[in-house]
């Protein structure tokens, strides 16, 4: 099972590390290995959230996620995205941007760093909306009830998550503008960039998420129509497979997953510059990490881990919220990537531990109930 799921990841790791040695020797090998670990540690919460969406999709779309999705994730976000950002921010052609990335790495790194406020605002708002929509939803299973119960009641207010996200964006942009003004006003226009990029992230979330939700609702209507057929199949003893997302619904869910992955990858791409400004090594290292995240997503789906450890999804969404805040803060202040990765790992580990405790408590309760039943039967006899 492990080899089947992670086989491609192991193969890509071997090829990537060999390519690194040929490209830049053993130093390049070490850099690629470090970048791979960085990407996996920063994106574990991404895998958990992805698994929650992917389990609703058919086997065909799961394969698309692992093939086409990987190409988009590895080549699109880890290789093309940094170049596109430089091309847009520096107002140069894509070929010139590629030439700059390969031949003038220091200047290329400066341009990407200058584009960071726009990247952080877009990704931060997209991830913040995911967290807010999750935390304001009234759900049967609650992890941190003292937080989630009152927030679920507040969530009944229409558009609350959008209002809070916009308030956060305004505060961030205002703080950034004030900071820039204190330094002579040379970068006051960056506040406008933050606002525009943040609103773009919000719109992207609402459009892609809205379309996904629309087609998912359509699918639920179809499931209701087929409910009678499923009952008939159960009576006759023929097992009818569960309806899973397909067609337009699956396509928009796939699109949502790709935008989600893009938002998660922002911190990894920016953080990679702390280790190297060589775009080839970045693509190799982050690409290997992205493969493991994809494989881990599928592994979680096939093992039914989210069903067994019910608080994992909660922990991942809290990690998303933390990452969103961190991205917005990095517009003005530098935060070490180790801190970013540790926050996500700690929250997910905590939610996993809570899930294990819950499972043990339920098992103990069932065992006690079974013992009581046996005692009652023995007494009756």
Describe the structure.
The chain crosses the membrane at residues 7-26, 32-53, 65-90, 118-136, 157-181, 193-215, 241-257, 269-294, 315-333, 339-356. InterPro entries: DUF475 (IPR007427). This is DUF475 domain-containing protein. With 381 residues, this protein is mostly helical. Helix content is 84%, strand content 0%. The chain has 14 helices and no strands. The longest helix has 53 residues, at 2-54. Residues 180-188 have low confidence and may be disordered.
Quickly list its features.
single chain, 381 residues, mainly alpha, 14 helices, globular, DUF475 domain-containing protein, DUF475, transmembrane helix, transmembrane, membrane
Strand pairing plus helix content: what structural class? mainly alpha
Q: What's the β-strand tally?
A: 0
Oligomerization status of the protein chains = single chain
End-to-end C-alpha gap = 48 Å
- Count the DSSP helices: 14
How helical, in percent, are the residues?
over 70%
The whole-angstrom Rg is 23 Å
The backbone outline, from C-alpha atoms, is globular
Strand content: under 5%
- Helix and strand run: HHHHHHHHHHHHHH
Could you list the spans in which at least 5 consecutive residues all have pLDDT below 50?
180-188
**On the 0-100 scale, what is the average pLDDT?**
77
Describe the largest sheet: none
Organism: Streptomyces aquilus
Protein name: DUF475 domain-containing protein
Pfam family, one: DUF475
Keywords: Membrane, Transmembrane, Transmembrane helix
